[in-house]
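Example record

One chain of 554 residues, shown exactly as stored in the release files.
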Amino acid sequence: MGPLDLHTFVALRPEPLIEVHPDGVVGQVGINLLESIDLEVDRARRTARLRIAKPAQFPEGDLAFFRARAEEDSEPVAQFLEDYPESRLAHEAAKLLLTLSIDEGAGAEELHAAVDWLGRTTPEDLRTTRMLDLMKEMANAGETEVVLAAGRLGVENGRDDRYPNAVHHVHGLLGKTYLDRLEKTGEHQSEAWSHLLSAAFGLPENGSINLNLGRFYEYQKRYNRAYSRFIQAVIQPESGPQALEALQRVQPLLESGEAFSVDTIERMIAGKVRNFGAATRYASSEEEPADKVVLVEFFTNCHLGDERGGAIGGALGNEGLIQHFPPEHVVFLSHHLPKPQVDPLCTSFAQARARLLGVDEPAVHVIDGVAGAPGAARWRQAEGVYQRARSAIIQRLATYTDYDLEVDARIERDGETWRVSGAATVHGFEDYDLAVQIVLAEKGVLAPGKSTVVVHRAVARGVLTDDEMGVEFLPDSDDGASMELPFDRTLADITASNEAFLDQLEADGVGTTARFSSQIDPRQVRIVAYIYRMDTGEILSAVQGTPELPKELQ
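Predicted structure tokens for this chain:
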């Protein structure tokens, strides 16, 4: 570079050089230097020539900022912004001022002033968007005053922002911040209300906004309105788990007095979520005979895919199958595996079944332990999932079996929990390597997740035998052979076992999940029993029974 003195053109930054090169680098220059110098690069000769194009104009503002920054104190940085508000480094200085103010424990007035500088040095058509980003960052850091200051600027500039929805998200986060204060101090009720309502008008289907608006109504003891908002929030992945917990809180407080249940929620969300229905109902015929009861197992996960594709397509197809085939011909179970992440319905029994049947990944239907069909797809492809599984089921229905099962069960109160008891009876002759399993399942379970499936069908919750592989089939006699397997277990015991399994997954580093879907609703309980070959996993026959309920549950 010859005799060129860079100090006359630029103010050198007082910081280490991050980028390096094997040949050695002494510094970096930018556009501000090249505005005054012509640079010619000769790649063949590996040389560069610089020529002064116009007289140097030293950037006094740059030097003033570097000097202020070197003091690591908010006051000189604030003074720089007052002296050089139009400097090219003003935005960088504004960010530094906010950081230093937070580090120094500045009061509300100083923090609001720092945020104002950040807004003034941001392009007008991006101010609301940038303030929203700042609000999210500061909310996670617990800097409430900064959130409020940024929110005020975001609302003021909302009309001019290039992203029109940004201001609605700002209203939503402001409303949540005021709501948090309201619940702690009883103050800012009008601010929380006005911002949340503005957010809901702009983004009526946003899960987080509806969740917080429901919290506001719950605070006001307007439980019917709160319940309505929580219903809208439960169908959105980002707010589903929290909304489900809120629904359980509010349901007993409603004027109707109706108990919280899957059926109640399902009626409320009808038409708001994806659905698929079978056009016909199966009836056996010469063309489609039913010589046995088929068991269909659906392996899935609450977080597989999203609303466009993944578990949603498989779940819709599975729902169509349940509608099409009556339980006297086809029995359904669904198992949740901890992939792509742990969800609240994962069980050790699901893993045991997956290992036996050779299922490595979720999103598959297994028919009678021997035939497979898709269990994941885009929601528009639910018809294809349904048709492929239906064809495989029809083939298995025509398979003759020598075995028949019966289930008799009842549910009774046992202190603070419920007890399920009864017996499964298997009719048939002894054969090599056969086992019988009895499973407690729930007709429907609420477990919202990223897949956007809210109600999961025929969920296997646990076994009613002493072993997850079942009990060896040993009939009483060769003539009119049968085997009776009694069972007796509390729902609290099954819940505790499932939660212990989730705890073990967490301890093993597989992942963690909330426990909001751990409790078993006795009104949803179904008993499924099946007999199968332990060497191949083939299901020879199955049965589903609905326990007799006490009057208080009817």
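Notes: The first helix runs from residue 31 to 34.
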